[in-house]
From TrEMBL:
Protein name per Swiss-Prot or TrEMBL: Odorant receptor
Organism: Zophobas morio
Subcellular location: Cell membrane
Gene Ontology CC terms: plasma membrane
Keyword Cell membrane: yes
Amino acid sequence: MFYDSDDCLWLFRLISIDMYLFKPMKVLLKLTFYIVVVLTGIQTVMFLKKSETYYFVKCQPIYFGSFFIEPWPINRLGHVLERRIKRQSIYFNILLIVITVVSLVSGILHALPIEDDEEIFYTLAFFQEYFPRCQRFLCFVYRMGFVLLSIVMPAPFLISIYVGCHAQYQICMLVHVLKTVNKVNQTEESDLLLDKNYQEKTKNLLKFCIKRHCQLTHADREAMKEVQILAILFCITTSILFICMIIFIFSCSFREASKGRYLRLPTLIFPAGVIFVHIFFLAQGIENMGSFKVLLQSSWYNWNKENKMIYLMFLTNCKNPYKLRFSNSFSVDYELAVSILKSVYSVLSVLGYWKR
C-alpha cells in the first residue's frame, strides 16, 4: 500500500517501516542477524552436550527469544470523520513513542552488566570460558546488540498495528459512504421508485462501493499471503518464549537469577503486553466495522430491479466480515485472545500447584 505525505500515522510509519529501509540499517540488521544465528547455533550445540535441566531453565528465555491499495484521504468524507481519525492517530503515535522509549530502556538495562549475568545469558559464559583474552570486547559487542534488538523486535508487531489502523480507517470511510445511500433530499419514498435521478445515483454509488470493497478484500488477501508463514513462525516462537519465561519465573532459580534485574522484567513485559492488547482490539474493531450490517439497513425496497440485483451481489460479497486472517482456521480476534488467556491461566494454575 502506498501512503503519501499526508499520512496521519507518519511517525508510526517512520519508526516501524521507513527507518529499516536505509542502507546502514539494512547492513546493521544483517550483521546482527548473522551474529545471533551463529551464537544461537553454538548455544544449541552446547546445550546438547551439557544437558543440565537446571541450567537450561535459567537460559531458555534468552535462547528462545533470539528467533524473531491506494487509500482515500481522510479529509474526503467530512470534518467529523476526519477529526475522529486524526484523534485516534494521535493516540497511536503517542502509544508508539511510549513503546519505543520503554523498549529502548529495556535494551539499555539488559546491556548494562549485572553480577552473575552469565547465569542467564549463556553467550557471556561461553565467551568467558573459551575466549578469556578478548572476553570484555566480545561481551561489550554482545550487550550492545540488546539496544538494537529492543527497537527491532517490536517492529513486526508495530507494522501490524500500523497496517491495521489504515485498514480500519479505509473500512470506516467505506461504511460512511454506504450510509449515504439512504439519504434522500425532499422526496417522498413513494416517488423514489420512479425517480430516475435517484435510481441512477444509487446505482453509481453501489458500484463504487462494490469496487472499493473488492480492492480492500484483494489487498487483505495479498497481505495475508505475504505474512502467513512469518505469522505462524512468530506465533510458535512467541508461545515457546512465553512458556519458557513462565517456567523460569516459577523455577527455584528465579529469586537468585532476578537479583538486580527487577527493572528489566517490567520494561520487557510492558511493551509486549501493550502491543498484545492493541493488536487484538484493533483486529476485533476491524471485524465489527463490516459493511454487511449497514447494507441490511438500506432502503432497498425503494430501488428498481437493476439496483436490487446489484444490492444482492454486494450483500453476498459482504457476508463474510473483514478479518486479520492468516489461514482458514486462524484469525486474530477476541476469541483467540480469550483462548490464549485461558491457556495462560491453566499453565499458571498447574505450575502454582506443582510449586506448592
